[in-house]
Amino acid sequence: MTPRSQTAGKAAWRVRGRVALRVLAVVYLMGVWLDGAGCGIPAAVLPRAANYFVQVSALFPWAAITSIDYRAEGFVCSDGTWMELDTRPYFPIDPEDKENRFNRVMHFFRENRTTMTALDSYLVQSHDSGQHDDGIPRDRAIGGVRLWSLRIPIPAPGDRLERVSRQPLSSYPPEQRKAYYHTPRSRLAERCGRRIEGAD
Amino acid sequence: MGWLLRRFLEWVNEPTPVLRIEIVRIFAPLAILGFMSGRIAHADEWIGDAGFHVPDLGGDWRQPLYIPALPSWAAWTVAAAMVASGLACCLGVRTRASAITFAATLVFVALSDRLETYTVTKLSPAIMLAVASSPAGARLGVESTWKRRKTGKRPKRVRPIGAVRFLQLLVMVMYSASGIAKARGDWLKVPLVLWSHLHDSYQTGLSFALASVLPGWTWTVLQGLVLAFELFAPIWLGLSRTRPWALVFGLSMHTMIGLMFGPVRWLALLMMTLLVAGYLPERLLGPLDALAERLEPVKGRASRRTAGSRPERVHEEGQEDDELPGGDL
């Protein structure tokens, strides 16, 4: 191959590469736009992993009806009672805001039984390992968890406002709390090593 | 139609200041790494097996691809590669390779962990691939400075850069799609959408203070302005007459978002970077260009300067460097 034909070959590949990149760019931009505009085409034609990367533009389209937070309680085997379990030591990324992984797993998967069961095991093992202070004494084993969503009403303009802060679960009225998951009684009994009455 | 396509291709191939892509190359990795920093500090919990991971849900829509948690050492390796490649790209060291590596780590963490994936995570790979496919690193980079010192060639200041056009379009597309999503959602029906988002854990001291003192109608006015800006962004940013005002509005909007919604500040900084890089008027790029020239010594420049010549003149005499890193989108 002469140097001239080698150069021509390289140039041809460069042109092909440029065309491929431009096609990819157009597909990506169309995907982003169509997805944000609510069109189902990207989801229908793109592989799921690729479609995931075009879902970037639909930001805050809905009004918040309530301010949402998620909490957990642990079932203390020795007392047979539920106590609030602070999940932040076990989810240390962004512990003070809703980008915390516990909030995220509850946000996305609170109705997915497989994930909630895995979360249950993770929290019980984490507490029982006794490595962190989580609001339940380290020497008291827990047999299961109850996972809650808090739905705090949004004030109206002109109302007296208070800075958002974390309050104990028990300080919220029952109508603002909704339980999404609790460890089945049979599992509580298995973990605590005794018959459990009235844990629900 | 043919005319429109021809005009569009002409626009794509029009020369544009190289500084535009350098702004993205320098500041986008910093905004992305800033966003990632909290996660990187807990890499073993984030993508490693030390923390909670959603199990394989076998095709659930919320899990685009199941990637098992990494052993801790591998999680820390990915995190280190992300930091090193992001900083290398920002500094202009092996720019193309570092941008591709950075993009690859971003794709990996986005797919590996749905829980920590946000707009920044999903948007960043495209931005970094655009940087990789451009001549980024030709100016204001460590490597280009060394090369310049050796060869004495000055960098090209203007050239066709498809990646810049891509990023300009990306900004328009993002805003426009976001505006449509808002219009289809509650923004035209509920007057207090903005107000409703001020009362959760994103709240900052400023958002609390403004929510406490501003009357309710101001939030409705701001909501209308944001919606009008986003929905018609292609017009505001497309027309030369409205472009500077759109830039000012966009930068102000993102500044307020960053100050009022704590963790969203990194997305705000990333969008501000894209806005400035894509839409800063060329007359305002001039001072930046002059500053860039000062930071880009060429061979012989220092000795001539000591001889009393004006540096600008020496620079004009330098050859333009055609052997710039990378090709072009």
* CA-atom Rg of chain A in angstroms: 26 Å
Radius of gyration of chain B: 22 Å
The figure for the number of domains of chain A is 2
What pair of chains forms the biggest interface?
Answer: A-B, 64 and 69 residues
Q: How many helix segments of chain A?
A: 6
Q: Residue ranges of chain A: pLDDT <50 for 5 or more in a row?
A: none
Kindly report how far apart the N and C termini of chain B lie.
Answer: 23 Å
Kindly state the number of beta strands of chain B.
4
Summarize the helix and strand pattern of chain A as letters: HHHEEHHEEH
**Series of secondary-structure elements of chain B, N-terminal to C-terminal:** HEHHHHHHEEHHHHHHHHHHE
What topology, given as strand order, has the largest sheet of chain B? 1-3
What attributes characterize this protein structure?
heterodimer, A: 200 residues, alpha+beta, four-stranded antiparallel sheet, 4 strands, B: 329 residues, mainly alpha, two-stranded parallel sheet, 3% strand, disordered C terminus
Task: Explain what this protein looks like in three dimensions.
Chain A has 200 residues and is α+β, with helices and mostly antiparallel strands. Chain A has 2 domains: 3-54, no CATH class; 66-192, no CATH class. Chain A contains 6 helices and 4 strands, in the order H-H-H-E-E-H-H-E-E-H. A 4-stranded antiparallel β-sheet of chain A has the order 2-1-3-4. The model of chain A has no long low-confidence stretch (mean pLDDT 92). Chain B has 329 residues and is mainly alpha-helical. Among the domains of chain B are: 17-133, no CATH class; 169-279, no CATH class. Chain B has helices at 2-13, 18-40, 43-46, 72-91, 95-112, 119-132, 142-151, 162-184, 193-196, 205-213, 216-231, 233-238, 243-260, 265-279, 282-294, 301-306, 311-317; strands at 15-17, 154-155, 158-160, 320-321. Chain B starts with a helix and ends in an 8-residue tail after the last strand. Chains A and B meet through helix 1, helix 3, strand 1, helix 4 and helix 5 of A and helix 5, helix 6, helix 8, helix 9 and helix 10 of B.
